[in-house]
Design brief:
Elements lengths: L1 E8 L7 E3 L2 E3 L4 E4 L2 E5 L4 H15 L5 E6 L5 H17 L3 E6 L6 H9 L9 E4 L2 H9 L7 E2 L3 H8 L11 H5 L4 H10 L6 E4 L4 E5 L2 E6 L13 H14 L4 H19 L7 H5 L2 H11 L2
Parallel strand pairs: 1-6, 1-7, 7-8, 8-9, 9-10
Antiparallel strand pairs: 2-6, 3-4, 4-5, 10-11, 11-12
Helix pairs in contact: 1-8, 1-11, 2-3, 5-7, 8-9, 9-11
């Protein structure tokens, strides 16, 4: 069984397709035979690249990808939802787990995908990051997910039972953004959180059913806060850890710490790109697994 990453590329001409991509650290590109090289900058390509690198260290096969071009109009995302629901209806047992990333929050498409999993003999693990969490929350089925990986702003959105989108998150919740335990508990009790959450912030927080189970605050690399794509890296790493069979809390802890370690190895400056961090990812994962053994 494979792990699947679903997401979008900000290019409307990028065709919908099932692929297994390779990542080259020397030039920061994802590649496969049926498409031009895809340069990694942030977003779903970054998540996928981090997952590939971690899978190499863990000794499991690279994840599959279902990608499509979408510049925010939802057209590509609608096609992806339909294709994924079709594939899962035919054989949901094909995938050990699925990570959903940047997709237009289409409730009908989201619900069709979840419905396609009904009756499968072994339900795949479900991980959601970025825009897909919006659809998961708005659908009322957030608790169907095994893991959300929000940042603090997204955590406040999940905690606001009235907000249909992060832009409408009420101010008093945004102001309490650093109180992750209170926000996590509120999100869980209102039915807007996954069973597990890895909240990405200056201090990363591991949450199970609304209760804090642990934190990760080292290595402390403040310069990483300003680099786009670092949160995508964490989501990709934890997907690989789960695919390799690590228990949820350990997977979250290793992913959070390995991302920080790779950032530390990159010695970031304001000019650092996410590919500079990915160049150190395999070493960071190896070291972190040894530390956490």
């Amino acid at each position: 069984m494979a792990w699947l990453v679903c997401g979008t590329i900000p290019d409307p001409s990028f065709p919908l397709g099932w692929r297994t991509l390779d990542y080259r650290t020397k030039d920061g590109c994802l590649s496969c035979a049926d498409m031009p090289d895809l340069h990694v900058q942030r977003g779903t390509p970054t998540l996928y690249a981090a997952c590939v690198l971690a899978c190499r260290v863990l000794g499991v096969e690279s994840p599959r990808a279902l990608l499509v071009g979408d510049i925010g109009d939802g057209i590509g995302s609608a096609a992806l939802y339909a294709e994924l629901a079709r594939r899962l209806s035919a054989n949901a047992d094909e995938f050990y787990g699925i990570t959903f990333h940047y997709l237009f929050p289409d409730l009908d498409g989201h619900n069709r995908v979840l419905a396609s999993l009904e009756g499968c003999s072994r339900r795949p693990m479900l991980v959601a990051d970025a825009g897909f969490m919006y659809a998961a929350k708005m659908s009322g089925y957030a608790k169907e997910y095994d893991l959300f990986t929000p940042d603090v702003g997204e955590m406040a959105f999940l905690a606001d039972e009235n907000a249909p989108h992060p832009l409408y998150t009420r101010g008093f919740l945004l102001d309490s953004g650093q109180d992750v335990p209170a926000l996590a508990k509120r999100a869980w009790e209102s039915g807007n959180a996954a069973r597990n959450m890895l909240v990405k912030a200056r201090v990363d927080t591991i949450v199970v059913r609304g209760e804090v189970r642990g934190t990760v605050d080292t290595p402390n690399v403040p310069a990483l806060e300003a680099i786009g794509g670092t949160g995508d890296i964490v989501a990709g790493l934890v997907s690989a850890m789960l695919y390799a069979g690590l228990a949820m809390e350990r997977a979250c802890r290793v992913a959070a710490r390995a991302a920080r370690r790779a950032g530390e190895l990159a010695q970031p400056t304001p000019a650092t790109q996410v590919t500079d961090i990915l160049a150190h990812m395999e070493r960071a994962v190896e070291e972190t697994l040894q530390e956490q053994a």
